[in-house]
Amino acid sequence: MSEPLQAPRGTFDILPEQAPLRLAVENVTRSVLESAGYERIETPTFEPTELFTRSVGEATDIVQKEMYSFTDGGERSLTLRPEVTAPIVRAYLQHGMHKLPQPVKLWYLSSCFRYERAQKGRYRQFWQIGAEAIGSDDPAVDAESIALLAEILEQLGVQGLQLRIGSLGGSAARERYRELLKAHLRANEDQLADDVKARIDLNPLRAFDSADESTRAVMATAPLLLDHLDKEDLDHFAQVRSLLDAIELPYVIDPTLVRGLDYYARTVFEFSSDALGAQSGVGGGGRYDGLAEQIDGPPTAGFGWAAGVERILLAAEGLPEPEPLTVLFIARADDAAATTATSFALSAAARRAGVPTQIELAGRSIKGQFKHADRVRARYVAAVSSSGIELKDFESGETTRFEDGDAALAAVLRGRGIS
Ligand code: AMP
User: Fold this and answer.
1) For residue 83, how far is its CA from the centre of ligand 1 (angstroms)?
2) Kind of pairing, strands 281-287 and 39-40?
3) Which long-range contacts (C-beta less than 8 Å, at least 24 apart) are formed by 410-417?
């Protein structure tokens, strides 16, 4: 016999034992962000391919080799979202959210798809939490957004965090700088790794990401974008930093911080964790004031971040243990039709009264049913038989006999302090 079919490489099933941990990530994210006025948004899993080629950028790894794109029955090219910022800006424009009080603050928990080399912490379908504040270029937006991610990661117990921040300036300064950097790379071309060499024109900034030793030596003497920013951008960056200083959020300035998406301008940042291996990035983001225009919208400022749920879980300690949910387990002590009917009616009444209840579904012996009740950590077992109901309270160890379901249920409710 052949093996049963497996899930695609780089994907994973979220099994029941992981559900409580993921719920904790969702709950903390929601509580921190909604308390700060962010509202939840969910965009479609797929979008027009053009949305990503125009915003994330033709020259990025994501667009060049990582997108899951397909043509649908109507001959449209669609792509499973590799990231969520561009879809959210698309939604902001499509729904005229510029008419709302600005900035519009949105958060999400969504799956993303990238055809990447799968390894620990790097998958082909993964989940991101994220926040976007669209419609203001106030440096307070940047600092607050970064602080909110810091708060989420701290509440979730993510270990060994480090925050790096940088500024990419505006597009004019970046353009001038690109030429400087290209000249530096060309002058040292013979010492560069092949993939860096191939991208000198397309994406010279990515050279800072290279792990190749001789490339790194060339980059150590490369001109830095931070030294070539316009005054306005430098002032903006200084204000962001002074706000982070005001709340004593530690960071290091990283002039080589390059993110794999083209739409960033001005502030960029990344949280990494030394509790993770090679894939140490937990979450990051930045300002994307030009993104709306790239997809035919009016000039619109924006700032946001995304953090990987799986990376958070890998780097977090002390996340809550799953709580037992079942309170009442209803066992059948004999096979009489009346017993089945009584136990079923009791389960419905118990659920209506708000008591989390499970019933026997596999025809186990009465001993097996008690064992199973223990496994699901129920506090009570109601053993129903033709002659009545025996209610065992595992907390007190007492067993009480009742004539009917109503009386047994009333005892359970009394035991839980509800009567
Ligand atoms: P990015 O959109 O590339 O800035 O990624 C934001 C965050 O998403 C990263 O810091 C990671 O935590 C997470 N992430 C990105 N790509 C992957 C992936 N392939 N698998 C798992 N998590 C990822």
Assistant:
1) 9
2) unpaired
3) 412/327, 412/328, 412/350, 412/355, 412/380, 412/382, 413/353, 413/355, 415/379, 415/380, 416/327, 416/355
The tens digit of pLDDT for each residue in 353-389 reads 999 999 999 999 999 999 999 999 999 999 999 999 9
pLDDT at 259 over 70: no
Classify each residue of 79-111 as buried b or exposed e, where b means 16 or more C-beta atoms within 10 Å of its C-beta: bbbbbbbbbbbbbbbeeebeeeebbbbbbbbbe
Distance CA 55, CA 291 (A): 6
How many C-beta atoms lie closer than 10 Å to residue 29's C-beta?
26
Query: Which residues does ligand 1 sit against, CB inside 6 Å?
Result: 83, 114, 116, 121-123, 126, 128, 259-260, 281-284, 306-308, 310-311
pLDDT band, residue 271 (cuts 50/70/90): very high
Both tokens of 14, joined, read 């979220």
- CA–centroid distance, residue 122 to ligand 1 (Å): 7
Residue whose CA lies nearest to ligand 1 atom number 3? 260
Give the pLDDT of residue 263: 86
Query: In angstroms, rounded to a whole number, what is the distance separating the alpha carbons of residues 417 and 327?
Result: 13
For 95-137, write each residue's pLDDT tens digit: 999 999 999 999 999 999 999 999 999 999 999 999 999 999 9
Judge whether 135 and 98 are in contact, CB under 8 Å. Answer: yes
Between CA 149 and CA 32 the distance in angstroms is 9
pLDDT confidence band for 260 (50 / 70 / 90): low
